[in-house]
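pasting for the record
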Amino acid sequence: MSKAGLLNGKVAIVTGGGRGIGRSHALTLARHGAAVLVNDLGSGITGSGTDPAPAEAVVAEIQDAGGVAHADTTDIADWNSAGALVDAALTRFGRLDILVNNAGITQYGSIETESAQGWARTLAVNLTGTAALMHWAARHWAAQGPAHGRAVINTSSPAGTNPPPGATSYCVSKAGVAALTVATATELAHLGVRVNALAPMARSRMTDAVPILDDIMRAPEQGFDRMAPDNISRLMLYLASPECRFTGRIFGVDGDDIYLFEGMSAETHLSNGGAAWDQDALARALDSVDQQDRAYMIAPSLHTRAGSPPREALDALDRIARGEAPGIIWRPIDT
C-alpha cells in the first residue's frame, strides 16, 4: 500500500480540527485516504464564543483536494454531546476507526487567581471532553467486537508532563490526559484499540499567547521549520496507521526530536532495610538527595542548593504566576 493510501477506507474524528495542530491533523489524515469528521466549536483559546467557519474552511480545503470530510461544531465538553459526535461520524460515514482528541483551551492564572468557572471549563474541554469521546467510541467498538487497526491519539502537552506556573488548570488537565491515555490503553486493548498521546511543541494560538516563546516559535526564513504543526501530524499519522505497534505511550514532539515519557518516574529510591524510619535517620537519608524544588527549576538563576528559597525567588515566582515577570507570561488574547 502506498503511503498516500495508508488510511484508505478509514474514518477519523479530529476535535479542535479547525486551526493550528488540529487543522494539520485533519489535512494529513485526509491526504492519506481517511474520511474525516472535522470537529471545532470555533471558540477562542479560553473557550469563549462559537464560530463554524474554522471547521468549514478545513473541510473545504480537504474537499478541494479530492478528499472526504464533514464539518461539525459540537461542544465536546458535554458528555452526551460527545456521544452525538460519535453518532454523527457513524451516520455520515458508516464506521469509526480513528479518534484524534486535539481540542483544547487554556485559562491564565495561578491557583490563587483561578476561578471556579475557568477551572471547570478547562477541565471539561481538555480532559472530560477527551474521556467522553473515548467512552462513546469504546461503547461503539465493544458493540462491534474486536477489530484490528483502531486508534486513539490524545493530546497532552509539555505543560502536562513538566508543568510551568501561570496556567494551573491547563497543566492539570493535560497531565490528566496523559494518565487517561495510559489507563485506557490497557482497558481497550482487547478491542484492537491502540491508545497513545502526543505532547506537542509547535506553533498554535496558545503559543502565540506566550511572549517568551516568540523566538522559539518564529518560522525560519529558510530550512527546516521545527515549530511547524506538520511535524506533530507526521507522528500522529504513524500512531493512527496500521504500522504503529505502540499503545499506552506518551510521545513528546519538538521539531525532529521525539521523546517517549516513562510516566511519573521515581528517579531516587531510599530504603531503611525493612524497618520503620525514625525522624533523624530519615533526615540524614534525605540530606543526601539534591534539592530541586520547583521554585528553583522555574527560576534557575535564583537557584540555591540548600536552605529555604530566598525571598527574591519567591517574589519572582509570584510575579511569573501573575504574568508580571519573565517566565510564563500570557498575552491577553482570545481569538
